[in-house]
Amino acid sequence: MLIAENDTIIHLKSYGYSDIGNTTKLNENSIFRLASITKQFTAVGIYLLQKDGVLSISDLVSDYIPDLSHYDNIKIENLITHTSGLPDYVELAKEYWDKSKAATNQDILNLFIEYEPKVEFEPNTYWSYSNTGYIFLACIIEKVTGESFQSFIENKILKPNNLDNTFFYNRYSKEVNPSMTKGYIYIEESNGFVEVEKLGNNHRYTYLDKTVGALGLASDIVDLYKWHTVLNGNTFLSNDDKRLIYNNHRLVDSSYTSYGFGLSIIESRVTGKRISHGGDWAGYKNMFDRHVDNDKVIILLQNMKSQHSQLPMNSIYQILYALDSQSNDQLEEYAGSYIVDNDADDIKTFVFKDEKLLLNVNDKFYLPMIPVGKDFFIVEDFSPEITIQFMRDKNKLVYKHIAYQYDKAHHATKVEEVQ
């Protein structure tokens, strides 16, 4: 775990093991597979090619991969921003790929050429996370540069920024860095954690591990901090470059997504603008979380994952931003039902349970509320972020709340009893 603010590292510590078998402990030089944190490097690579006039993100994908002409209205920017409508290749490979072999990007591309799976929606009408776009972006980079995707990223991004401990890795890599960690997932049948690279051929972590673009990079926490400092500066990417890369993508209906160039972009009343991405693959669960308005960065790298694995982001936010805690008596004041925007059919109910304030989504599902200030809460692990501000009357009793999401605000009045 690394936390820094104003170009100063304020917390750097490792917990747990790089290799359970020989009890090798993690340290700041331990190498982790980054999984989807790779996407921002792929997207920056595309942007650099646009700056050089090699391509435009407004170009059609079929201009560069003619065999995908059946997807004739998907643009490069749709691949970058998860607005293409293409189904995720993981499911396609699960159905059609020969699991005795490791699939490459070309193999995935061939599946889309052969089976022509339908788009899930028309391009740029909706946002849906799909790893397929980043496989195709890597293919486009290879097409226009004449070099491998890995070589291009190394020569254009990693080496110029002295990211010496960041490189491409998969289970089939011939050379293994001695600082490379092992990834583990919890298997109920085994009643414990299992090393991912010992899983059989039928597991997606095995037969899809050669694909790159959506994933593929490995790094240590110090190099990722170095990448943060690169992005904070304006030598490699100018301020104009970053204004485009850090911009929320706009859909055809003029609404905005929470995604830009391989990065989630969230406007928060607590942290300010957050530019971040997680990574989840082959036992690794990571977060690269930059708070650009407040010059903070949180980097978490984890090599053990279970069904219940959670990264403690909100707990870290509470500490970093000195957010208020609330007593049980205070939390109980907010409990009750609220009619939203005077619509009797839209009622939100908050309950106090197990010393927490919870939003009752339905009888079986509750979302925890995280206190972030006096009468202010955010809904835990909800994206796009929702901030709830409870309001008090002249007698200091809670009588309504306002829910903020993006630039929209919904007013809800507390009712004594709901029929």
What can you see in these coordinates?
- With 419 residues, this protein is an alpha+beta fold.
- The chain contains eleven helices and 22 strands.
- The strands form five sheets. Strands 15-16-17-18-19-20-21-22 form an eight-stranded antiparallel β-barrel. It has a six-stranded antiparallel beta sheet with strand order 2-1-13-12-11-10, with helices on one face. A three-stranded antiparallel beta sheet has the order 5-9-6.
- The longest helix has 14 residues, at 38-51.
- The chain starts with a strand and ends with a strand.
Keywords summarizing the entry:
22 strands, eight-stranded antiparallel β-barrel, six-stranded antiparallel sheet, 419 residues, 11 helices
Q: How would you state the average pLDDT, rounded?
A: 93
What portion of residues belong to β-strands? 25-35%
What share of residues is helical?
A: 10-25%
- Span between N and C termini? 49 Å
Helix tally?
A: 11
Q: Summarize the main sheet.
A: 8 strands, antiparallel, barrel
Structural class: alpha+beta
Number of strands: 22
Low-confidence stretches: none
Strand order of the largest sheet: 15-16-17-18-19-20-21-22
**Rg measurement, Å:** 23 Å
Silhouette: globular
